[in-house]
């Protein structure tokens, strides 16, 4: 049996796809990957030694009328391109992980009567998944979303390094700060100042590509000693080192952090489509594993929240919780797919 795995551009889509692909590979099924050809995709998919097809595809939401017309043309063109790929590779099923690239692939599969399965990482379903959820056999949900038909709450598939748990003894409070692999301007520009009045802390800060000089200068300006890297190769190691994390509220990042029994001060990206990062953050608060700071609030509020987390030792209580939704997500997804395909004689 051969699966078409569709995920592109961001780690939030790609890493869950890789975790599911790992699980599929254990059963000796074949894999074909489809994406946009970005470096993060190529790096993630390379270990499978599988065929990797590339489509030119852009997002639709928030674009100008001219760009939306271009995307519609891309969808129509790519449907026919994907039909050829499906027939050539003799695909048995498609699994999509969000992003507009999944739309032409899903439509092509639907036209050829190939079963479609999708996974939504966020607490709000994205535009592409909303479209495909109408024709998908099973809609897998990384976070709980109400009123989605044919849905299974699977959790977000995470890499095996996020299965572990440990707690390091330290006389200091260890804070890991990250704005993701690309960095986040708000976090890079405001955290050095926000931490300047605190004592007895250790800080590690992932600032993103091309930001390291500016961030180092800000920490120096405010007299804060910090370890600063543009990117940490092993984020699980940094999370486990920390007492708590300060980050954006991407679904996969929060799934990884909470699976390692760490809480977070979350600063949702205010421009995220459908405000999905805020909804993601709310789900972590409901688990008793974090607090939210809105970017539009003052720097004084940010400082106050960090001080309260440390003085009240909120992070100690966060460590007592554990989000168990994600550890077996890849297995839940693949087992449900196998059951469906077996019932419908697709194996």
UniProtKB/TrEMBL annotation:
<dbReference type="GO" id="GO:0009252">
    <property type="term" value="P:peptidoglycan biosynthetic process"/>
</dbReference>
<dbReference type="InterPro" id="IPR004276">
    <property type="entry name" value="GlycoTrans_28_N"/>
</dbReference>
<feature type="binding site">
    <location>
        <position position="277"/>
    </location>
    <ligand>
        <name>UDP-N-acetyl-alpha-D-glucosamine</name>
    </ligand>
</feature>
<comment type="function">
    <text>Cell wall formation. Catalyzes the transfer of a GlcNAc subunit on undecaprenyl-pyrophosphoryl-MurNAc-pentapeptide (lipid intermediate I) to form undecaprenyl-pyrophosphoryl-MurNAc-(pentapeptide)GlcNAc (lipid intermediate II).</text>
</comment>
<feature type="domain" description="Glycosyl transferase family 28 C-terminal">
    <location>
        <begin position="175"/>
        <end position="327"/>
    </location>
</feature>
<keyword id="KW-0133">Cell shape</keyword>
<keyword id="KW-0131">Cell cycle</keyword>
<keyword id="KW-0472">Membrane</keyword>
<dbReference type="GO" id="GO:0008360">
    <property type="term" value="P:regulation of cell shape"/>
</dbReference>
<keyword id="KW-1003">Cell membrane</keyword>
<keyword id="KW-0812">Transmembrane</keyword>
<dbReference type="GO" id="GO:0071555">
    <property type="term" value="P:cell wall organization"/>
</dbReference>
<keyword id="KW-1133">Transmembrane helix</keyword>
<keyword id="KW-0961">Cell wall biogenesis/degradation</keyword>
<dbReference type="InterPro" id="IPR007235">
    <property type="entry name" value="Glyco_trans_28_C"/>
</dbReference>
<dbReference type="GO" id="GO:0051301">
    <property type="term" value="P:cell division"/>
</dbReference>
<protein>
    <recommendedName>
        <fullName>UDP-N-acetylglucosamine--N-acetylmuramyl-(pentapeptide) pyrophosphoryl-undecaprenol N-acetylglucosamine transferase</fullName>
        <ecNumber>2.4.1.227</ecNumber>
    </recommendedName>
</protein>
<dbReference type="InterPro" id="IPR006009">
    <property type="entry name" value="GlcNAc_MurG"/>
</dbReference>
<feature type="binding site">
    <location>
        <position position="159"/>
    </location>
    <ligand>
        <name>UDP-N-acetyl-alpha-D-glucosamine</name>
    </ligand>
</feature>
<dbReference type="GO" id="GO:0005975">
    <property type="term" value="P:carbohydrate metabolic process"/>
</dbReference>
<dbReference type="GO" id="GO:0050511">
    <property type="term" value="F:undecaprenyldiphospho-muramoylpentapeptide beta-N-acetylglucosaminyltransferase activity"/>
</dbReference>
<comment type="similarity">
    <text>Belongs to the glycosyltransferase 28 family. MurG subfamily.</text>
</comment>
<dbReference type="GO" id="GO:0005886">
    <property type="term" value="C:plasma membrane"/>
</dbReference>
<comment type="pathway">
    <text>Cell wall biogenesis; peptidoglycan biosynthesis.</text>
</comment>
<feature type="binding site">
    <location>
        <position position="181"/>
    </location>
    <ligand>
        <name>UDP-N-acetyl-alpha-D-glucosamine</name>
    </ligand>
</feature>
<dbReference type="GO" id="GO:0051991">
    <property type="term" value="F:UDP-N-acetyl-D-glucosamine:N-acetylmuramoyl-L-alanyl-D-glutamyl-meso-2,6-diaminopimelyl-D-alanyl-D-alanine-diphosphoundecaprenol 4-beta-N-acetylglucosaminlytransferase activity"/>
</dbReference>
<dbReference type="Pfam" id="PF03033">
    <property type="entry name" value="Glyco_transf_28"/>
</dbReference>
<dbReference type="Pfam" id="PF04101">
    <property type="entry name" value="Glyco_tran_28_C"/>
</dbReference>
<feature type="binding site">
    <location>
        <begin position="10"/>
        <end position="12"/>
    </location>
    <ligand>
        <name>UDP-N-acetyl-alpha-D-glucosamine</name>
    </ligand>
</feature>
<feature type="domain" description="Glycosyltransferase family 28 N-terminal">
    <location>
        <begin position="7"/>
        <end position="136"/>
    </location>
</feature>
<feature type="binding site">
    <location>
        <position position="122"/>
    </location>
    <ligand>
        <name>UDP-N-acetyl-alpha-D-glucosamine</name>
    </ligand>
</feature>
<feature type="transmembrane region" description="Helical">
    <location>
        <begin position="95"/>
        <end position="118"/>
    </location>
</feature>
<keyword id="KW-0573">Peptidoglycan synthesis</keyword>
<keyword id="KW-0808">Transferase</keyword>
<keyword id="KW-0328">Glycosyltransferase</keyword>
<keyword id="KW-0132">Cell division</keyword>
